[in-house]
Design a protein that fits this description.
Layout: E1 4-12, E2 16-23, E3 28-32, H1 39-53, H2 61-71, H3 78-99, H4 103-106, E4 114-120, H5 129-138, E5 143-147, H6 162-172, E6 177-181, H7 188-198, E7 206-207, H8 215-222, E8 229-231, H9 238-246, E9 252-253, H10 262-275, E10 279-280, H11 288-299, E11 307-308, H12 314-317, E12 340-342, H13 355-362, E13 373-374, E14 380-381
Parallel strand pairs: 4-5, 4-11, 5-6, 6-7, 7-8, 8-9, 9-10
Antiparallel strand pairs: 1-2, 2-3, 4-12, 13-14
């Protein structure tokens, strides 16, 4: 048993926040606390957790998690849980590296040898999706996800939904599975219509057809469609998830390992979901550490379905040269073959972070701000 010696965090391009934990014996691990658009808030919370955690036993991961959750009195929410996530992931990485095993071996071992993955096409205002889908097929993917609509009004013209059908049909004609992300952009009057229109064309799932802040609406919508409903990126703990499992309104849960309290919490959420016959498809339009941690969980989780990965996502390409492979010494660990990533053979997270690159980029990286969308009348529309 060795104590935590230091906890550092690094803001890096395009919009990620990495965490490194070291113990007194020189062991170290990496985590990710990325919360898109709120890096500075998470950094402030990390500062408080650093003061709390330094000197604790690094091996006591559950104790550390419970200490952060309960001793702070106020708990939950995106910022607090994202801060916990980075430290938690790093502690699992540190412990597994010290024991010279992959993290999945500490989570009960593998239940599969490879992980199905999907990638984004289309951007915030989706266009040229057929061309981008062909590129994904060439990269080895057999499943993709795109935004269902551009920004849309509370009650919009039904014609605003027609292009959604055309894009879905065009991409499915290439022989890939297609998930559609409503992104919480649609309110109930439009979401009900679009879910009904899409149903004959069998999307893989529809994601956030309504925001999770409207659980009664999600429950109503789930009774109007046979298409699997997915959500969860804006749920931050097992307590947030409870209601959606109890009312049977969600078919696929999408907890984000960097928002939900790390490996410790996502495993508990997955076990809860299994008891309700709900699949897990972790949300992860984020960096390589979050993806590596998600893959370790996916390999050890019976009800895992498919994993999001951010290779070439528009948020990365719009920022320039930094992408999913930018901070890795060996980029082959995320190679996609027949729609799957093989179980990594390395210890810990199964990746080796290029610390020199992280430290260099972190000196200049500025906080990333979400985009703003407004209707023709100037009113705010959902991102």
């Amino acid at each position: 048993m060795t104590k935590i010696k230091s906890i550092e965090y690094f803001r890096v391009l395009p919009r990620w926040l990495f965490v490194k934990v070291c113990d007194e014996e020189g062991n170290s691990g990496w985590g990710e606390s990325t919360l898109e658009g709120h890096s500075e808030a998470v950094e402030g919370t990390l500062n408080a957790l650093i003061r709390r955690y330094e000197g604790y036993e690094a091996d006591d991961i559950e104790h550390l998690w419970q200490s952060a959750w309960r001793h702070g009195f106020y708990r939950g929410g995106a910022v607090f849980m994202s801060a916990i996530s980075g430290i938690d992931i790093a502690l699992w990485d540190l412990k597994a590296r010290k024991l010279k095993v992959p993290i999945y071996q500490l989570l009960g071992g593998k239940v599969r040898n490879q992980v199905r993955v999907y990638a984004w096409i289309g951007g915030d205002r989706p266009s040229e999706v057929e061309k981008q889908a062909r590129t994904r097929i060439d990269q080895g993917f057999n499943a993709v996800k795109m935004n269902a609509t551009a920004d849309i009004d509370w009650l919009d013209s039904p014609s605003a939904l027609e292009s959604s059908l055309e894009r879905l049909k065009a991409v499915k004609a290439l022989g890939v599975d297609v998930a559609l992300d409503f992104h919480g952009r649609l309110h109930k009057p439009m979401a009900k219509q679009l879910a009904r229109l899409l149903e004959p064309y069998t999307p893989l799932f529809i994601e956030e057809p309504l925001l999770s802040e409207h659980p009664e609406g999600v429950a109503q919508l789930s009774k109007l469609t046979t298409t699997p409903i997915a959500l969860g990126e804006r749920l931050y703990s097992r307590w947030d998830v409870k209601r959606f499992l109890e009312d049977a309104s969600v078919d696929v849960l999408q907890p984000d390992i960097s928002h939900v309290g790390g490996i410790s919490e996502i495993k508990k959420i997955s076990a809860m979901a299994e008891a309700y016959d709900v699949a897990i498809a972790p949300h992860c339009p984020l960096g390589p550490i979050a993806l590596a941690a998600s893959i370790q969980v996916a390999l050890s989780t019976p009800n895992f379905a498919i994993q999001e990965m951010s290779l070439g996502i528009h948020y990365n390409t719009e920022a320039g040269e930094h992408d999913l492979h930018s901070y890795l010494n060996d980029v082959s660990v995320f190679n996609v073959v027949n729609g799957h990533v093989k179980a990594p053979v390395g210890i810990g997270l199964g990746i080796e972070v290029n610390e020199d690159a992280v430290r260099r980029v972190s000196k200049l990286a500025q906080p990333w701000l979400p985009k703003e969308f407004h209707g023709v009348d100037g009113a705010i529309r959902e991102w």
